[in-house]
Specification:
By secondary structure, the protein is of the alpha+beta class. It has 18 helices and 30 strands. Helix 2 runs antiparallel to helix 3 (56-75) and helix 10 packs antiparallel against helix 15.
Length: 703
């Protein structure tokens, strides 16, 4: 009976060795200088472990590959080009056998003897031909007796070499030194802990709600400490679910190599940002979309060498994978320098497939045409191949990315190439959200999608009909408006107290709701099968007050209501203005002040107890970043109270200003009265003199 822990170690180590072998063989094939010793050790380690677990197929082919490489090592020979493809095949067979072992099914490779003969012939040819005597730097080799082993057979007695390190009694690990600074934890246990942390977050939110009503300073101090510790624990435990995206990209160089050879194309793969971290659940969901997009670039995007030369391009095409974090999201770009998307071919196929009418096609811009490739069954490929052509890939891409809470964008220029951009949140387990209320129900809107919130008090006249739509006059622009109550009740209603301005993909629109409640970190619970029909919601959560809140999916909402980017552009282009809007607020020691709205990231209501004093500085933590807070001499640790933070960007990075009151956004013309040396010019807003503060001019004196 094989121990589960030993089997798990074997699987993890073997996959790691195979990924390393693929990378080394690819490097050698391109004329690189990968160490043959490392390739030899990889096969040797896999063979040793397979022997212990009695996986005979893996043991046989790895052993024969090891024999071939042994001659190369002993005579300092390079690996011939003809042998590299055979070594790749060995890796493929081993990988399939290991996957079968993992799934507890039998695997028989029909061409095993042929593969062994090919390896033996390489061995034979190498042993019969004289080695090339060229001066080479000495390469240290590792004797077989002292090479690293993944798993040792505890029941088989064996004489140890003098250089063998001692093996601790009872260990089934390597002779890989034992690393006591890390342990293996099952994913199910991590998921269980994260669920418990989620419940702790809900309980914390409930406690904060109660304390706000009671308002006992001593209890508030304790709950603030609990709040702080809960946030830290939550952040730390979430990092255990994070994986570098490199783990998903390791197989792509080999895949690009194999497919490019099969198609007769020359393709170079560049990967940037492999160290970017992403929730392992999301990374698993994105495996299929990334693979589909990469295969699409290989088959549809990159041209054949002779065609590229005719177009004045180098014969070798380039595909780039790039990953990075941006404003609480992970961005993945898959781009190629191929032929790009052909709008005419896409429209022709869409019309033949009855996806749209001639009249509709005439009004589509290039971006809208590109989005048609995500329609189910859509493909411009004339013939079906093993690589693509059935039109299911891009549909899968969009479906899976949406399931991961993300979005897909396309940028393409005919003849130059295309870039597919995937944006997903760092994690789906816990989400910063704005809680709103409409029609006696609670809803959570992801903060990443919120641009700003507008109070409709005394401004309802600014919502006006435009054709079949309603629009709102926002700083000289007209914003498409949806009424949430109408969407929920399917009845016409033009009532509401607030407009939440939402951004999704390249679209911006306003959602009218009745009431804004609070911001919370909500624990996301997926919808059950019976609720899958509610496409505008991505899940549910339990608030601090114990009430259920539906989590809104702004992208699905825009799609369900027929909002498109070109419609928004038509609306926004009307009534454009050159006036720079400003936000007016009040600072206790200064009076009325204002700031350019374009420099503001967000405005938060806080309690002074959330600010931390470090030396002479006042600091605030947001999204794992510590930023300085300018208090203008109005902050006291002894007398904390409610206040507002205006978080904005400066040349030095993120900064925040603690202010007493926030009034409104002004977009009318204003005149500069005179200039102050410290903060900025004085302007007149509603006949009130206000300092126009530039974040770049804030100094140590304002801390």
């Amino acid at each position: 009976m094989i121990d589960d822990e030993i089997a798990r170690e074997f699987l993890l180590e073997s996959i790691e060795h195979l990924n390393t072998l693929d990378a080394a063989l690819l490097d050698l094939e391109k004329g690189g200088s990968s160490d043959i010793d490392a390739i030899f050790r990889g096969f040797h380690s896999i063979k040793s472990a397979a022997s212990f677990l009695e996986i005979s197929l893996v043991e046989e082919v790895a052993h024969q590959a090891e024999n071939t490489l042994s001659i190369l090592r002993s005579e300092s020979r390079p690996l011939p080009d003809t042998a590299i493809s055979t070594m790749f095949l060995v890796c493929d067979v081993i990988r399939k056998a290991i996957e079968a072992f993992q799934n507890k099914v039998d695997f028989e490779y029909e061409n095993k003897q042929e593969l062994l003969d090919r390896l033996a012939n390489i061995d034979k040819n190498l042993s019969q031909s004289p080695p090339k005597r060229q001066p080479q730097p000495s390469v240290p080799t590792m004797p077989e007796e002292t090479s690293k082993k993944v798993i040792s057979r505890p029941k088989r007695k064996k004489r140890k070499a003098a250089t063998d390190p001692p093996v601790a009694k009872g260990t089934a690990g390597a002779l890989p030194e034992e690393n006591e600074s890390s342990i293996h934890i099952s994913i199910s246990l991590i998921d269980e802990i994260i669920n418990l942390i989620g419940e702790l977050v809900v309980s914390r939110n409930q406690a904060i709600r109660v304390i706000e009503e009671v308002d006992v300073p001593e209890i508030r101090t304790i709950i603030n400490r609990i709040d702080h510790l809960t946030t830290i624990i939550q952040q730390r435990i979430m990092t255990t679910r994070m994986r570098v995206i490199e783990s998903a990209w390791r197989r792509y160089p080999r895949m690009v190599r194999d497919l490019s050879k099969e198609l007769g194309k020359q393709i170079n793969l560049k990967m940037i940002g492999q160290e970017t971290e992403l929730d392992r659940g999301l990374l698993s969901m994105l495996q299929e979309p990334m693979r589909h997009l990469l295969r699409n670039c290989i088959d549809h995007g990159i041209e054949f060498p002779e065609d590229r030369v005719k177009e004045g391009k180098p014969p070798e095409g380039t595909i780039s994978l790039k990953a990075y974090q941006s404003t609480g999201q992970v961005v993945i770009e898959i781009a190629d320098d191929g032929k790009g998307l052909d709008d005419e071919k896409i429209l022709e196929k869409a019309l033949r497939s009855n996806l749209l009418t001639e009249e509709q096609a005439a009004h589509l811009d290039s971006k809208e045409i590109h989005k048609l490739i995500f329609e189910p069954g859509f493909s411009t490929k004339q013939a079906v191949t093993q690589i693509s052509g059935r039109g299911v890939g891009m549909d899968v891409v969009q479906t899976q990315v949406k399931k991961a809470g993300g979005q897909v964008e396309i940028e393409s220029t005919l003849g130059k190439g295309a870039c597919f951009t995937i944006r997903v949140p760092l994690t789906l387990a816990i989400l910063p959200a704005l809680i709103v209320k409409t029609n006696h129900q609670y809803f959570a809107i992801p903060q990443d999608n919120i641009a700003e919130i507008i109070d409709l008090q005394d401004k309802t006249g600014q919502i006006k009909p435009l054709g079949d739509s309603m629009v709102y006059s926002l700083r000289g622009k007209l914003l498409p408006i949806l009424f949430f109550e109408s969407i929920l009740s399917q009845q016409q209603s033009n009532t509401g107290g607030m407009v939440v301005v939402l951004r999704t993909n390249d679209l911006e629109f306003g959602l009218v709701i009745h009431e804004v409640m609070d911001t919370e970190e909500v624990v996301v619970k997926p919808l059950g099968e019976e609720l899958k029909g509610f496409q505008i919601f991505s899940g549910v959560t339990i608030q601090g007050n114990g009430q259920i809140a539906w989590i809104l999916d702004p992208s699905s909402l825009a799609n369900s209501e027929g909002l498109r980017a070109e419609q928004e552009n038509e609306v926004l282009n009307q009534g454009a203005s050159d006036i720079t809007p400003v936000l007016r607020f009040e600072i206790e020691n200064i009076g009325s002040a204002a700031i350019d709205i374009q420099k503001i990231l967000r405005v938060e209501e806080i309690h002074d107890s959330e600010l931390k004093v470090h030396g002479a500085r006042c600091l605030y933590t947001i999204e794992r970043k510590v930023i300085p807070v300018y208090t203008f001499g109005c902050f006291s640790e002894e007398e904390p109270r409610a206040s507002n933070l205006i978080i904005c960007e400066s040349e030095r990075g993120l900064v925040a200003m603690r202010v007493e009151k926030v009034f409104d956004i002004y977009s009318e013309e204003y005149e500069v009265s005179h200039t102050l040396d410290s903060l900025g010019p004085m302007i007149i807003l509603d006949d009130i003199p206000s300092e126009l503060i530039d974040p770049n001019n804030l100094s140590e004196a304002n801390l």
